[in-house]
Automatic annotation (TrEMBL):
Origin: domain of life: Bacteria
Keywords: Carbohydrate metabolism, Glycosidase, Hydrolase, Metal-binding, Polysaccharide degradation, Signal
Swiss-Prot/TrEMBL cofactor(s): Ca(2+)
Spans annotated as Disordered: 138-160, 346-368
UniProt xrefs under PANTHER family: ALPHA-AMYLASE 1, ALPHA-AMYLASE FAMILY MEMBER
Name this polypeptide is given: Carbohydrate binding domain-containing protein
PROSITE patterns to which the protein is assigned, alphabetical: FN3 (PS50853)
SUPFAM superfamilies, A to Z: (Trans)glycosidases, Fibronectin type III
Compositionally biased residues, Low complexity: 141-160, 346-360
The organism of origin for this protein: Streptomyces laculatispora
Record-annotated Fibronectin type-III domain positions: 264-357
Residues in the signal sequence: 1-28
Amino acid sequence: MKRSPHLRLRRPLAAAAAAAGLLGLLTAAPDPSGSSSAVPVAASENTATVFYYTKTRDWSAYNLHYAPDGGPWTAVPGVRMEAACTDWVKKTVSLGSSPGLAATFTDGSGVWDNNSGKNYALGTGTITVKDGVVAHSDPCATTGTDPSPSPTSSPSTGNTASVYYSTTTVGWSTTNLHYQPAGGSWTAVPGVGMEAACTGWVKRSVDLGAATKMQAAFNNGNGVWDNNNGSDYTVPAGVSTVKDRTVTKDAANPCAAEPADTEAPTAPTAVKAEADGVSVVLTWEPSTDNRSVTKYQVTRTGGSKGTTVSDVGSTVFSDAGLEERTAYSYTVKAVDAAGNTSAASAAARATTGTRPPAAAQGTPLGTDPRKDPIYFVLTARFYDGDAGNNRGGGQDVKSGNAANNDPMYRGDFKGLVNKLDYIKGLGFSAVWITPVVLNRSDYDYHGYHGYDFYKVDGRLESAGASYQDLINAAHAKGMKIYQDVVYNHSSRWGAKGLYTPTVYGVRDDQWSWYYDERNEGFEYDGVSVETKSGKSYYNGDLWSTAEPSGNTCLNWGKPTGSTSAEGYRIHNCQWPNPTSGMFPKEYYHNCWLGNWEGEDSRSCWLHEDLADFNTESAPVQNYLIGAYDKYIDMGVDGFRIDTAVHIPRTTWNRRFLPAIQERVTQRFGAGAAKNFFVFGEVGSFVNDKWNRGSVNHSAQFFTWKERKEYSADDTRAALEMYDYEEKLGTGAQPASRNAFLDGNAYHTPDHSEFSGMNVIDMRMHMNFGDADNAYNNGKDSDDSYSDATYNVVYVDSHDYGPNKSSERYAGGTDAWAENMALMWTFRGIPTLYYGSEIEFRAGKKIDCGPSCPLATTGRAYYGDHLAGTVEASGFGQVSSATGEVAGTLGRPLVKHVQRLNEIRRAVPALQMGQYSTEGITGRMAYKRRYTDAASKVDSFALVTVTGAAAYTGIPNGTYRDAVTGDTRVVADGKLSVAAPGKGNMRVYVLDLGGSNAAPGKVGAAGPYLK
């Protein structure tokens, strides 16, 4: 599950507290008026004054071509715009009763800015359109008696405050100054527009009258604020600078010593256009500039839509949804911060093909999951194959990701397809990916805030690299895809198609920055930008001033006695909350979790970002079963189940697990269903066998069927089961011998009481600070699982390191090698979190939410280590590699894991075998055997990790070590092995001849296995 650790135990006490928590994340401006309920009154006729930025266009004329919402378009080329102030033109148009307008801009001679083919959707009032970004401010406005926005001008009366604001770390295209002279009133939100001063600085002068200082905040006109962490800025009269939250009084003009930048960047070179179906990917070499290039302008000609100009922040442009079999030409210009524009590049041309058909549905590989070591990736943080679907979201600036040019949604399926050979070259044949469903939250890149469970998130897909394409590409390489799925909760905004709450929201002088204007024609999909707000995280469909039909939320819209951290009045029903009546009990539970090991952990919300499904309700069950049937049909090979412990075992055993089996059987047959791998996250964060003595909260509990009949009502049955099993206690739970040998013999396991859910081995995970400790704790629990040979074993993950650490494992390379040697030879399925093969981000905090950049955490972007090409000739074998990835593949733990995978793949006993320590002395020493009469496989192996071992009572015969090739002949049932050293091991395999002959030395000696 993907809750931020520092929020994990937070339990909001009321709707007011929950709303305040949100606003603490979305830094906003102070209350400009002190009013708690001001609501703007609509005029009898709406108008829009549209300002358009000219500096980067350099057209000879500017026309606004528009249509009021619901009305006709103007005749081409539209109406002429007039000069407003330096670098701006404007036009005021009447809209009648329409709430907004659709618009494009043109020079009147065939060159258009129509927002890359989507037009601009604009609201009413004052609107700026600057380089594709829509904001709400007047860039030419003056205030008081100050006739000029220049900080160097003098006011006609009173005191003047001239403010320079540094935009280096915020990256805004428009900046507004919202201020209050001491003893005076706040300006109307968003304040007054600031103008460019020099690279990295904007400026504004305001008349303070008799006041000697003012309170101030800054914003981008679209709801993103810098208000000094809620304290506002105090700015004195005179010249001041504001940089990095520091106000400098009587400051020198930061632009005075900087000569005007009149030098244009060099023209982009090596422009290449490659068509893929009806998409074109354009790439070029970066331009140079005397200061810095801030963006590129791509001009496209061809097709029936005429000429279009698009702004791009990188040297890659993905142009999708083009016409079939059509020739297109592209040129690129570079633009610097001063607006200097380079000459156009040489044209690059491409002709589209036909629209590709949807990828054919896949078929699961259907083999025993224990054969397949797992590589776990956060898809959005692994490798970026398509920059066109990158999105930063509402926390991009606050988190610091924007300053790092590191949007939270960065990696994608195209990147994963491109690097499947890297994963295969490491030796992994299964890839566990984070949830794929459309998410909706302030910080949802990891996928655990599902909104539309029937739709794949567009921020992960690209033309030719859909989710289906990924599944098919993996299968073509003999690799499985395990999809992370969430049954326990949706996003705070509900689940589309089941229930989505409407919250109270009023776009008054306090809240207009947050509640986006409604656009009836726009549907949130995570990737498309709604142009009225300029956001891909648009929320105009979520709120209403009028009480919705059928509302169940108590005291709809009434002001509470509380304010947000920024001083805004909070209203009832303003924020999703389980105790307000906003979420119907038929679909959601209506309480906050109080005890993580109590009954309420299955029936209450974990966090305000995770709306807890009423999974005992038939409509919810049907919604989720139907959604996940879709992905089963696509051919995924298994499900990793998030937050499994927070759903009653009875519900799993009655509803969800049988539904999975039935669907796989129906689509692909009983054999595929048997090997469709389901493994659950049952968060047991203690070092004992049973989680604080509670069987209902222990991982092994979920691997068993029910032992008695309960009520036909699922809610009552859950309570009956909980009470029954807790009273029985740990000593009366079922036991299993499925993981253990009978002497030296393998026996057919008894899975008659298996629930259908395997689990992550939380006890080994929690104890992996030391391999010995993990091994001994693992052995101690194995009789309580249905079959521990199916346990998923890892050291750390996207949530925790060992001992519930919030940092990625940092025990050192030798300790990592030792942990891996144990994981790859002991019972269970070894699993590695992305980048651990190079100790990526070792010791770094795994998750800090939006309070720090992702680049500083354990969820940093990994793609820089994968740049270049790689081809795998087999599992654990790389035939060629170039660029940075070649260096990555040369790292010591990479070599170690490659050989471990080769050895494990060559010895069936290490994959599927039962184990025993009978007659064995040694730290981590055991024997394993797997026998299958149907396939005539019989494999017996003796293993010791790090330390010396002595084996007695073993079968006589010839043994060959898979690590060194050493051969031993046993005639008296005894074999002794010297200590191989930390991270090293010995695997003596009994040579049984024919297809069961011992493989001898597997692979080449490496840094640890030697």
